[in-house]
Amino acid sequence: MDSIAAAQNDMRVAYFGGAPGIVTSATAWLAAAVVAAVVTPQAGVVTLVFAGMLIFPVSVLLCRLIGASGKHSKDNPLAPLALEGTIWMLLSIPIAIAASLYRVEWFFPAMLFVIAGRYLTFSTLYGMRIFWLLGAALVAAGSMSIVFQPPVFVGALAGALVEYVVGILVFVTHRRAQRQH
Question: Residue 128 sits in which domain range?
Fold first, then answer.
């Protein structure tokens, strides 16, 4: 690839602007919220961790179902950033889990911060500033969960709602951009 703009376009085309991943992540958050509310907060923690492992493969499947490849070009110079961001996120999850062992109320806010940081790198990967908005909204949701101390499941529910709204917005704007080209 000749330029960062071409590499970002390759990512946008391959992963449909990131919308399938955002919506899949939102579904993981929603599942965790439901389990935390209906079973126990600790079961919600486990649900988010295990559902989180399915986000990438499910989002690739969704990409293929809507006509995107779900795979960027092998020569994409942004591929290392995607991998590095994933490793950083995976290394951060044990911190949130450790916090939950001390106070389960801290898990979902901590994970909101971790995932917000991950989305900030997506702004560079996809060349879309909406990922800054998504990251900021998740930080706000995590911060409000800490300040207002709602029931544990509310933090996960907030993550789901933020991601569903932004995921739908990304889907619509990406589809519109495709039609214009």
Answer: 4-180
Overall domain count for the chain: 1
pLDDT band (50, 70, 90) for residue 2? confident
Is the C-alpha dihedral spanning 52, 129, 170, 81 positive or negative?
A: negative
| pLDDT tens per residue, range 64-104 | 999 999 999 999 999 999 999 999 999 999 999 999 999 99
Report yes or no on whether pTM surpasses 0.90: yes
Q: Specify the residue for token string 């492992």.
A: 53
